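// run 5 | inverse folding | seed 20
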C-alpha cells in the first residue's frame, strides 16, 4: 500500500493476482480518459511504478494487475506493445 503526498491521502493497494506470468509492464504507457478523470495522473503513475518495481525484482506478473485506489478498482493491462490503465467499465 502506498499513500501519496496530496491534500487528501490516497490509498493504493495492489490486489493478489489470479495466476503467474512473465509480464514486465515496460511497453508504451496509456490510460483511458475515464481512468485519468476519475483517479488523476499521479495515482495511476504510482501504481505503474509499483508494478515496474516488482517486475525488476523478479516477480512473476500476470498481464492483468488490479489495484484498489480509495476503494475503487483500477486495472493495468500489459499487452506487450502497450501498458493500459483503465477502469473495469472501460473494458
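// decoded
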Amino acid at each position: 500500500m502506498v499513500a501519496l503526498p496530496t491534500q487528501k491521502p490516497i490509498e493504493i493497494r495492489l490486489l493478489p493476482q489470479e495466476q503467474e506470468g512473465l509480464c514486465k509492464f515496460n511497453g508504451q504507457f496509456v490510460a483511458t480518459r475515464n481512468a485519468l478523470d476519475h483517479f488523476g495522473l499521479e495515482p495511476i503513475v504510482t501504481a505503474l511504478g509499483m508494478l515496474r518495481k516488482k517486475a525488476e525484482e523478479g516477480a512473476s506478473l500476470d498481464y492483468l494487475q488490479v489495484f484498489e485506489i480509495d476503494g475503487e478498482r483500477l486495472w493495468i493491462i500489459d499487452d506487450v506493445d502497450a501498458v493500459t490503465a483503465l477502469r473495469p467499465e472501460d473494458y
